[in-house]
Design brief:
single chain, seven-stranded mixed sheet, 9 helices, 7 strands, about 45% helix
């Protein structure tokens, strides 16, 4: 039995933090794991920026509620789920996910969570587990599942390399250069062909 593991942001939906940066007018928030591969460093930086600019969870959830999946993503995901099991492994947060998951017909999502004050101030984050994407792939493999994975950024690398087969989806050139043996897909048609082959 096969299971497909996909990243969320950059593969199925736009980058949430980039949309928050745009609507809040805070250029500093235009950073993702493509820019800072260390997730803890990235999140500490984001939390400091949110605090400095007094941006809380209500503002972020308003931004997310206005977002839509990437063009073609919903149909792509539906076509995969008709063929096999699909799990979304994401570094996003439970508190962010619902509006986008609704538009994707509620796929299974493993992600992290936030610590939020009653006033909506984000004070910290909780990882589901350290290196959670790779750990999930290892667990699926231990259940004798054939794991195929795809993602677009540095935080997906361990998941992709741990899977039986993995591919980059529209990655930054630095990832392609660092890992030239990993296949690259640039649209949903080629990604579907790779995942289901």
């Amino acid at each position: 039995m096969r299971v497909i593991c996909l990243d969320l942001e950059g593969v199925l939906v736009p980058e949430i933090w980039l949309n928050v940066a745009k609507t809040a007018g805070v250029e500093e928030l235009n950073i993702t794991t493509r820019d800072i591969p260390d997730y803890h460093e990235l999140m500490r930086t984001r939390l400091e920026i949110l605090e400095r600019h007094r941006i809380g969870l209500p503002h972020i959830t308003d931004v997310i509620a206005s977002m839509e999946p990437l063009p073609g993503a919903a149909a792509f995901l539906e076509s995969l789920r008709a063929e096999t099991q699909v799990i979304i492994l994401s570094d996003t947060f439970e508190e962010f996910a619902s509006p986008l998951m609704r538009q994707l017909q509620w796929p299974t999502l493993f992600c992290n969570s936030l610590k939020v004050t009653p006033e909506g101030r984000i004070t910290d984050y909780r990882l589901r587990q350290e290196d959670g994407k790779r750990q999930a792939v290892q667990a699926f493999k231990a259940m004798n599942l054939q794991v195929v994975a795809a993602g677009d950024s540095w935080n997906d690398l361990n998941m992709i390399l741990e899977a039986h087969r993995g591919a980059f989806f529209c990655p930054p050139s630095s990832m392609q250069e660092a890992h030239p043996s990993v296949p690259v897909c640039t649209n949903y048609e080629s990604l579907k062909d790779f995942l289901l082959q």
